[in-house]
């Protein structure tokens, strides 16, 4: 999958950068976690510092537009983000909690 950054907006009050990106993929829309890992690698960040908020793929297209929040640290992400977004992005989730 090829990821291209469309825009980046700094948000110093929340210690994050809002990122809009576009990606082209061969098969079905990639999972949220694989997109998060690829975007984190492109931005030289740790995966726990990136929260994928939205992925939008038009029917039949191989292009997805997404929104992500890139935090200065994983602790900042856990302070600001809602619980369900942290769970979707597997941030701060221990393996014991996943098994339960």
Q: If you compute it from the alpha carbons, what radius of gyration comes out, rounded to the nearest whole angstrom? A: 14 Å
Alpha carbon gap, first and last residue: 32 Å
Which structural class fits the helix and strand makeup? alpha+beta
Unreliable residue runs = none
CATH topology: Alpha-Beta Plaits
Mean pLDDT: 89
Q: Which CATH architecture would you pick?
A: 2-Layer Sandwich
Q: How many domain units?
A: 1
Shape: globular
| Strand portion | 35-45%
How many distinct beta strands? 4
Strand order of the largest sheet: 1-2-4-3
How do the helices and strands line up, and which of them pair or pack?
Elements (H helix, E strand, L loop, with lengths): L1 E10 L4 E9 L7 H11 L7 E8 L5 E9 L2 H7 L2 H6 L6 H5 L1
Antiparallel strand pairs: 1-2, 2-4, 3-4
Which key terms come to mind for this protein?
100 residues; alpha+beta; Alpha-Beta Plaits; 4-stranded antiparallel beta sheet; 4 helices; 4 strands; globular
